[in-house]
What we know:
By secondary structure, this protein is α/β, with parallel strands linked by helices.
Amino acid sequence: xxxxxxxxxxxxxxxxWDLRHLFRKHIMDTEELEFFVTxxxxxxxxxxxDAGRPLADMVVERxxxxxxxxxxxxLYSTHFNETIPGPVEHMPELxxxxxxxxxxxxxxxxxxxxxxxxxxxxxxxxxxxxxxxxSGAEKLLKPDPAIYQLALSRFKLNAPQCIFIDDLPANxxxxxxxxxxxxxxxxxxxxxxxLHAIGLL
Length: 201
């Protein structure tokens, strides 16, 4: 079957994301900043919310463990959008080209449900997407095959007619096992070449 649907990851594919973008505004010392994002508010801890754990429970627990950082831990829960400084370079233009070509767009993202609700409304790009699976809402994380199967079922897609784009090789490999084409994202230019090669641009 020809590929006709594009399924994107969001973080580090469509939008940049790094906890440092928020906390470097509040922690001036570089060594302390690195300690904070590797021991206190870490990606691994953050991923619990992506998996569906309530944010309030996570914050209370972390403050009990690191009371000296209580204000900064609370800041994570109230200013999360500041960890996302903007779109990945040239990706809005690439998405616009796909929209112009009437290519159906979808997304599967590991993203906390509470944070997603505050983020998605700020980004008109998602108005062009036919559907988005958010891990925190579904309590499923990539690369669990179930999250891809959910997307195929919910959006009535045939796996061989889809290409899945993610920056993590394990997530792409999981999609390919279900019959989708896959692309490990590095930059917009390389992705554009891939989409040209399969006839979507």
